[in-house]
Every structure is written in C-alpha cells, then in structure tokens.
Amino acid sequence: MKYGVNEHGYYGDFGGAYIPEMLYPNVEELRQQYVQILNDPGFKAEFDQLLRDYVGRPSPLYPAKRYSEKYGANIFFKREDLNHTGSHKINNAIGQILLARRLGKKRIIAETGAGQHGVATATVCALMGIECVVYMGEVDMERQAPNVSRMKMLGAKVVPATSGSKTLKDATNEAMRDWINNPVDTHYIIGSVVGPYPYPEMVAQFQSIISLETKKQLLEHTGNELPQYVMACVGGGSNAMGMFYHFLDDESVQLIAVEAAGKGVESGHSAATTFLGREGVLHGSRTILMQTDDGQVVEPYSISAGLDYPGIGPQHAHLYKIKRAQYVNITDDEALQAGLLCSQLEGIIPAIETAHALAYLEKMTFKNDDNVVICISGRGDKDLSTYIKYFGY
Amino acid sequence: MNRLNKLFESKKDNLLSIYFTAGYPELNTTLDIAESLEKAGVDFLEIGFPYSDPVADGPTIQHSSEKALENGMNLNQLFEELKDLRKRISIPILLMGYVNPMVQYGIERFCKKAAEVGVDGVIVPDLPMYEYEALYSKYFTENGLSNIFLVTPQTSEDRIRKIDGLTNSFIYLLSSSSITGKNLQVSNAIEDYYKRIKSMQLKNPAVIGFGISNNETFTKACEYARGAIVGSAFVKFLETENYLEKIPEFVKAIRL
Question: Are the beta carbons of A94 and A387 closer than 8 angstroms?
Fold first, then answer.
C-alpha cells in the first residue's frame, strides 16, 4: 500500500515507537506477533464470526434520502452507530481481545474519552471473562456519566484520571503508567490509531472493515465501488482511518477528515490538531500535536469528549502533510446543530463526534451525481444530556 | 574521557546520584541545589527538565513537573540557570527529560547547548534506540555527551548488549518495571536479574534507580551495582521549608 507503514513503523515522517524501556518488551512482543496472528486463518475466522454474530456486521450503508435532497448529492451513511455498543469502537476491541488472548494476557487496560471505547472494551472483556480496568478523565466521567455506569455494569473497573486536563490525554497517560507497572500479564487495548507502532497500524487494520464493506455496498447501490467523497470525524482518528483505509490508493476519492474546532480555532478552546498543532512526539509516536513553543502539550477543548485530544494518529499526520486527505474543522455549535438536523431529517440521533462530520456537509458544494459516504461513527444516546441542555428539550 | 568516566574509574562503589526537577519548587535554584548536593557528598546529579505528560513518572515527579512548568521552567530558562554550572560545580551532571521538548528546541541545538554549559550526559526515557542511532547519535558524539539508556528486568540479554555498545558511561538499571516513586522490592526474581546483569560483564558500569528512597534501599542497591539514584524521595523532600539548609541531613540519612 502506497500510504502504508514501513518496517520501522513510520508513515512518511510520522509514527515510530517513542516509548520508555519499560514498555519495550510489550510493544516488541506485539510488533513481532501481530502480523502473524492477524493473518492466521483461525484468528480471522473467529474475528469475522464475532463481527457478524455479536457486533451485527456488516453495518448497513444507508442511502440518506432527505440528506441527499437537502445537499444535492447521493449521500450514504455508513451505520457504525448500529453496531453492538453503539459505535465503531467495538471492531477494534474485538480484534484486540482476540489478540490479547492469543498472547496469553490475563488483564486488560484501556483509556477512554467519550466512553465508547471503554464500553467496547468492557464488553469484550465480559464476553471473554477477562479482568478489565478503564482509565477515564474525571471531566469526561462527568459529561459521559451513562457510559461510566455501562462500563461498571459490564464488570469493568473505571479509574478516574485526575492529572492535567482530566480528559482523554490524561487517561492515556494513566493507562500507559499502568502498563509500565504491569508489564507481563496485561494488554493495553488502545482505542484509536495512536500510540507506539504497531498500534496505529493494528487499530487501522481492525477498523478497515468499515471501508471494506462500504466498497461492496456502494457497488450494489451505485454500480461503482468508488464514491467522490468519503467523510469522517477525527479525534485520534480511528473511525476515519477505518473509513479511509481501502480508499487510500484510489486517488480519485476525496477524503475529508473533520476535526473539532471547539469554540472556534482561534478561541483558545479548540481541538483542531492539524490547524493548531506542530510536529512532535505524543503518546509514543511522532505525529502532529497541539503544543507550546517549549514542547509542552496543550490541553485541547471540544464539547465532544471523543474528539477532545491534542494529537492525531501518525498516519493521519502523514495523509495531512502529503495532502492525500483534507483536514477541516467544525465548531461545537455547528456540530450540535447538525446533530439536531440529522435527528429530524433522518430519524438518527448521532454522537456529537459524528455530528462534526455531518456538519461539514454545509460547507461543501456537490455536483448532482456525486456519491458521498459519511461514517456515522456512533449513536447519540450518550450525548442526550448535552443535546438536551443545548436545545432545551 | 568525560567526568562520568573519571568518576566511575576513581570511585568503585556506593556511588550516590540524586535526581531533581529543575524549576521545582521555584525558579533560579538549580545551581544552589546542585551545589548543596555536591557539598553533601553526592557523586553525580540528574537534573530533570519538566514535561507536561511524563508517562514514566509517578505522582511525586508528575507534581514537581507540573509545578515547575507553572513556575515558567523551560529549556531556555534551564540553560540560562546552568550558565555558571562549571564555575560552581565539579561533579558530573546529567539532564533528564522527555523527547518532545528536545525536539521542539532542536536536538542538535540541545546537545550543543548542553555541552557548552558543561553537562556530561542525557537520559531521555522515550527516545528509542532506533531513532537515536539513525537520527541523533551524531549530535551526542560531536558534543561529547553520553546518552544513558534504561534497562528493566524484562530487557533481553541481546538488547542489554546492544545498549552496552551504544553508551559510554553507565547503564541505568531499573529496580523493577515501574514508574518512578515506588518502593524498592527485592524478590528472588529481582536478585536473579541483578546477578544476571553482573554476570554479563558489561563494559559499562551499572547504577540502580527507581525505588531508592532511604538508607536501606540504597545499601541494598549498592550490593548489586556501583551505586544508586534517588529521585522521588528527594523531590518530595524539596517540599520542606529551608530545604537548601537541610540537604546535608537528607544525604546523610541515605548514606548513614
């Protein structure tokens, strides 16, 4: 693959494994084994079977009639919100739990922002009967309270991250510290295409089922497996990478990644990483991150906990730098309005993360026969209180 | 031969090193603290430059880093504070910190500046060997800086040998795979690990760090290595009033 990873774990200038020695054996074990395990027919069969019977895949590609009328193009929703647990996160969680079992791990840790990845991880741990500890920023635990309860009900222990901004980046720090302290029996299920190599590649491969299915489904709907546009929201970037993956080499397909502008990119309260960030090292990989001139990580802001992250995955940084994908941003207000519009035009209440991708439709100009796929990465149940507060329902 | 090599050549055992975070608890005290430590008989020092996301550190050093950043510590400030380093201090000095602030400062510029003020080596826990060798080792070598690597109980023999070949001062043995600020536990497995390292007859001496907080743990560590490094315990001590005056007592309590 032209845009794939090289033998040292780099996508162009980005990636690698910038980890302390304490994590080296764990990461090296993964690096040496993941390709073999992922290509093992037994693994593939189990992964596919669980995605089908447990997650409910393939997720539908829904031709959004009223959206298509409104925006003057053929708009398709890739319905990851219909997955078990309500988002794309389960695809990766299933893949990694099967991997962890094959590596003989007895304990799972994870970080979570919106709680979607935490719920997905708690779910697969319940399914496999493995101990599960989820780190979540204290601030996120408040704004995503229903997901905290869900994780607990599923048998996971939820540990608040109380350092820094008390959001996703801090939860990730805490999970890494846990992994350093438990190097032998624990597998860290990273929820996005971030972290040291091989995580970004591994997570992208598990999520690539999204674009694999989309191609087949588009062919059925339109007679052509390639659309003009593929769109997704980006925090760390896992649903976007899954949505882009099998389209990367199809250069005619325009890839649009929507970041969270928060209260506006110039407001000082934003998570628009490519707009505000510079190259550096975050959570084990060289990437683009929001930071001060001195290289201190800046605390991001977005109303959406899943996009409230100061970096992006290294492959996204690469796609941005070489301009294979376009990185744009949407404010809190625009996203919430789009969430309401989608609810009332299509009867689908999207996650606020997803609503960022939907909101960008307002800023695009289409030709009538354009085919557009948007990844509906998650459903909005977890965000009801935020929506309710904003709109006063 | 740099100051570190000379030290390890002239003094065979019970070497004591102390870590502290520059800019904590206040700015413009780096050399005062260093000087007190030298006078109290500490053999070499690690001066941390703070980072917002120190994943290898426990709560004590996290807190000191946060505070130091609030105080305005950064690499410019640190090098300014170290301007007269070699007028006041003669023991070896290492800088320790995470890679991103160095990347933003410029790694070549960082190495030059460190050498210019009289720093002897650098410890960067999240700078991997591959990147170090491929991209940065030339800057360290050109400026006569040692790069010190960490080794944990899980580090393979092959890798330890590779590390031994890449460095030219000492190897930083972690007492366990853990973040900083935990207490040293000596189990049979850990004892085997220290013995294993000893039997490898590495060209570089080994010093034990992480979990060394008092005389008991220091003495224990010195049984297995040339010396030991105290970090979190000293950083915690810096919270006490008039800490500069009390540094000799702190060091004395470690050494007895």
Answer: no
Give the domain ranges of chain B.
Answer: 3-8+15-149+213-255
Contact: A296, B69; criterion CB under 8 Å: yes
Asked if B174 has any chain A CB less than 8 Å from its own CB, the reply is: yes
CA-CA distance, B98 to A371, in Å (whole number)? 46
Do A301 and A314 belong together in one domain?
Answer: yes
Are A83 and A94 within one domain? no
Chain A residues within an 8 Å CB radius of B99: 18, 281
B17-29, pLDDT tens digit by residue? 999 999 999 999 9
Nearest-Cα distance to chain A for B122, in Å, is 14
Residues 180-239 of A with CB under 8 A from B: 180-181, 183-184
User: Has the ipTM of the complex gone over 0.90?
Assistant: yes
Q: Where are the alpha helices (DSSP H) in chain A?
A: 24-39, 41-50, 65-71, 89-102, 116-128, 138-143, 145-153, 168-181, 199-207, 209-222, 238-244, 273-276, 314-321, 332-346, 352-359, 384-391
Q: Are residues A285 and A374 located together in one domain of the fold?
A: yes
B46 in active site: yes
Using the predicted structure, report yes or no on whether residue B175 has a pLDDT greater than 90. Answer: no
**A275 and A160 belong to one structural domain:** no
Q: Do A18 and B75 touch (CB under 8 A)?
A: no
- Evaluate whether A132 touches A156 at the Cβ level (below 8 Å): yes
**Whether A297 and B125 lie within 8 Å, measured CB to CB:** no
Q: Which of A203, A234, A251 is the last residue of a domain?
A: A203
Tell me the fold of B3-8+15-149+213-255.
Answer: TIM Barrel (3.20.20)
A70 shares its domain with A37: no
The reply to whether A180 falls in a domain is yes
**Terminal-to-terminal C-alpha distance of chain B:** 31
Instruction: Report the residue from B66, B101, B179 with minimal CB separation from A180.
Output: B179
Q: Where residue A364 sits, what CATH number does that domain have?
A: 3.40.50.1100
For residue A28, indicate whether it is catalytic: no
Please count the residue pairs, one from chain A and one from chain B, whose beta carbons lie less than 8 angstroms apart.
108
Using the Cβ of B117 and the Cβ atoms of chain A, whether some distance falls under 8 Å is answered with: no
CA distance B41 to chain A (A): 30
The answer as to whether A8 is a domain residue is no
Q: Is B243 helix (H, G, I), strand (E, B) or coil?
A: helix
> Which sign does the torsion angle of CA A271, A274, A276, A282 carry?
positive
Last residue of a domain, one of A181, A203, A225: A203
pLDDT band at B182 (very low <50, low <70, confident <90, very high): confident
Q: How far apart are CA A336 and CA A351, in angstroms?
A: 10
pLDDT tens column, A166-197: 888 999 999 999 999 998 899 999 999 999 99
B71–chain A Cβ distance below 8 A for any pair? no
Catalytic entry in A208, A238, A304, A377: A377
A60 shares its domain with A126: no
Q: CB distance B125–A20 less than 8 Å? A: yes
**Residues B80-129: tens digit of each pLDDT:** 999 999 999 999 999 999 999 999 999 999 999 999 999 999 999 999 89
Secondary structure percentages of chain A, helix, strand, coil, to 5 = 50, 20, 30
Based on the fold, state whether residues A273 and A222 are members of the same structural domain.
yes
Residue A2 lies in a domain: no
Counting the structural domains of chain A, the total is 2
CB < 8 Å from B in window 272-291 of A: 278-284, 291
Residue A307 shares a structural domain with residue A246: yes
Domain hosting A67: range is 56-87+207-391
A164/B125 touch (CB, cutoff 8 Å), yes or no: no
- Laid out side by side, the sheet with A186-189 consists of A157-161, A131-137, A107-112, A186-189
Residue B1 has pLDDT above 80, yes or no: no
